[in-house]
Amino acid sequence: MIPVSFLSPLSSYRNMEVTTRLTWIEEKILERLLGNASLTLLYQSSVHKHCSVEMTNKCSLQGSTMTVFLKEDVIVGVFMLEDFPSLDSEKPCTCTWFSLKRNNNYGISALFLNTRVTLDSTSLRMFSPKSLSLTLNFREYSRLYLNDATIKELELNPNYKPEYWACEIFRVDGIKKNPGFIKKMVTAKEHRGKLLSALKAYRPYEDLVSEVCILLVGPVGSGKSSFINSVKSAFQGHLTRQAIVGSDESSITKQYRVYSIKDGKSGETLPFMLCDSMGLEEGEEAGLCMDDIPHILKGCVPDRYQFNPCKPIKPKHFTSAASAPLKGRIHCVAFVLDIRSVNTLSDKMVAKLKKIRKDVVDCGIGHVALLTNVKDYDEVLDDNFANMAESVTSLSQVQNVQNMLNIPVANILMVSNYASERSLEPIKDVLIFAALRQMLRAADDALADLPLEDTGHLDPF
Fold it and tell me: Which of 5, 44, 222, 332 has the largest CB neighbor count within 10 A?
C-alpha cells in the first residue's frame, strides 16, 4: 500500500468517483507541457483493478491520453497522441516521455519519441527506437520496470529498483493534434536547459568588468519591471515579483533600481545586472527626465536614487560627478516597447526614444529593442529555437522599430513576460533567456569596441 504521507492535495473531477494524486500545480505543469491542454482522470490503480481489462475498458477509444506513474519524490509519464491501445494489441504511437521531480522547483525532463505500445493480460509495455523501455507488470502488483537508458534519459536515480508505483491515466483534451507542435513544446524544455547553462557560464568580454549592467528604458507600462521579474523567475525556477509592477498611467517605478540575478540552484550571483528606470511619458515634466539619461549611462546614479521629473540630476548631487569607472557604467541599453502600441507611439515619445538612442550611441554602449506582450509566442520561434522565425521580420511592429531606432532585426527581441501565471512555461523561458543572451552579446560587442584608455589595457610605454 502507498503510505499516508504520500497522499498529496487532490484535484477533483466532476461526476467521477476518483480523484488524482497529482497536486494542482503538478497538473498545471503537465497541462502546459502539452500547450495548455486539460486532463480528465480515467483510470487509477488504487481504485480500479490492477489488470489490463479494467485499464482498457476505462481508457481505450478516448483519444489522446497521458499515463503517469507516481511516487513520493518523482513522477514518470508518457503522453500518447493516438488512442490508448486495446487489449492484446501492439501499435506505433507518437509519444512524449517525461519525468517530473516533486519538489519546490518541479524540474521536468521530457523526450519526444516514436514508441511501440503493447498491452496484454500481464503487462503494459512501451519501447522506443532509442532503446528506452518501460514495463508495468500487472502480476507483480503493478511494479514498474525501467531500463538503464530510460533511467539516464529521464534523469532518474541511477540506483532505481523496480517497485510499486501508483498508476493514473488521463484523457487529454484541447491539444493540437499536431506532432510537430508537441515536439516543439517538448524541445523547448531541452533548449531552455541549454540556454540556461550558457547564461550561467557567461563571462563578460575579456573580463573587462566583473558584471555587465543592462539598462531598461521605455514608455510607462511597456514591461520593464515585468521583464526583470520574468528573468529572475526563470533563473529561480519559480515565479517571483521583486520589482514592483502596475498599470497606472504614470510610472510605478520612481527609483533607479539595480537588480542582481542569482542562479536558483547554486545561489550564485551571476555576472550581469538589470537596471530599472522610471517610465517615459509624453510631458516635459513627467516621467523620466531626459537630462538624467547621460548620468545614468555614465554610472553616476546610485541604486535607489529617487527620480524627480521636475528636477534633473545635477553633478553636485553625487560625490563623483565625472563618469564612473568602466565597471560602474551601463554596458547595454534595452529599449522596452509594448508590441501592441509600437505602431501608435506619439511623435513626442518617438522623439524621446531617438534622443536616448543618440546618447547611447555617443557613449559607445550596446543596445537592443525588446518587444513585450507578444501573443502566440510559441509561433515566433523556429523549429530549432534559434531566436525568431524568418516570418517575424515581416511584422509591421518590427519594421517600425527598425526604422525608428535604426536597430538591426537580429537585435529586436520578443518576449511574453510572466504576469498572472502560477507556474513557469518552457517556451516563455526560452524567449526570456534568448533575449538576455542577445543583450549580453550586444554588451560584449560594445566592450570589445572600447578605446584602450577606457579598458585599462593601455600600454604606458
Answer: 332
261 or 460, higher pLDDT: 261
Q: Give residue 422's pLDDT.
A: 72
Q: How many CB atoms lie within 10 A of CB 210?
A: 9
Query: Rg for the chain (alpha carbons), in Å?
Result: 26
Residues 10-29: b if buried by 16+ CB within 10 A, e if exposed: ebeeeeeebebbbeebbbbb
- What is Dmax (Cα atoms) for the chain? 87
* CB-CB contact of 36 with 376 (8 Å): no
Antiparallel, parallel or unpaired: β 74-80 and 89-101:
antiparallel
Sign of CA dihedral 277, 281, 287, 292: positive
Structural element, H or E, at residue 438 = helix 426-448
Domain positions in the chain are: 4-155+162-174, 187-451
The pTM (predicted TM-score) of the whole model is 0.71
Least confident of 77-81, 141-145, 243-247, 333-337: 243-247
- Return the CATH architecture of domain 187-451: 3-Layer(aba) Sandwich (3.40)
Report d(CA 458, CA 461) in Å as an integer: 9
Q: What is the DSSP letter of 386?
A: -
Mind listing the pLDDT tens digit for each residue in 169-218? 999 988 766 666 667 766 777 788 889 999 999 999 998 999 999 999 99
